[in-house]
Design a protein that fits this description.
This protein is mainly α and 149 residues long. The protein is built from six helices and no strands.
Length: 149
């Protein structure tokens, strides 16, 4: 069997130890072959390459589009739906209804928009009152239509 002698093995170990010490003293080389740039630095470099007149134009157009009315925090609250029977009658538009099925259609259309389950939570009490008034008016007009034949 052909192998290393003790002196050869010792010299090989000495050489390996010396090589590893030299590598520890040298600064560590990056494992990535290209320079790493942080996202912030990348954005800065990108903005440096964009012409300033283009940036001014884009920001100018954006500021012209934005107004106080479109700012979400400045929106005016919607007015509450009316519980006045005359206003509800106008919403129902029952003037042209003649048959019971017409009144059923009117009730469904009104409920699609005004039913308490379909409105925002803070409007539910008002929606209950509006539906009660509308149902009362529709039922009264439906009975009159049935009585007329």
């Amino acid at each position: 069997m052909n192998g290393f002698t003790t002196s050869e093995f010792t010299s090989l170990l000495d050489e390996l130890l010396a090589r590893s010490e030299r590598q520890e003293e040298a600064p560590a080389r990056p494992s990535v072959p290209f320079g790493f740039v942080t996202p912030d630095a990348a954005v800065e470099e990108l903005w440096k390459s964009v012409p300033s007149d283009f940036v001014a134009k884009v920001y100018g157009e954006a500021s012209e589009r934005e107004t106080v009315e479109t700012t979400p925090s400045m929106e005016m609250p919607e007015p509450l739906p009316s519980t006045n029977p005359e206003d509800i009658a106008a919403e129902l538009r029952m003037a042209n209804a003649r048959w019971p099925k017409d009144f059923d259609r009117i009730r469904r259309e009104f409920a699609l928009v005004n039913h308490p389950d379909k409105v925002l939570p803070h409007l539910r009490d008002r929606a209950v009152v509006r539906m009660q008034i509308a149902n009362m008016m529709i039922d009264r007009e439906k009975r009159k239509a049935i009585a007329r034949g």
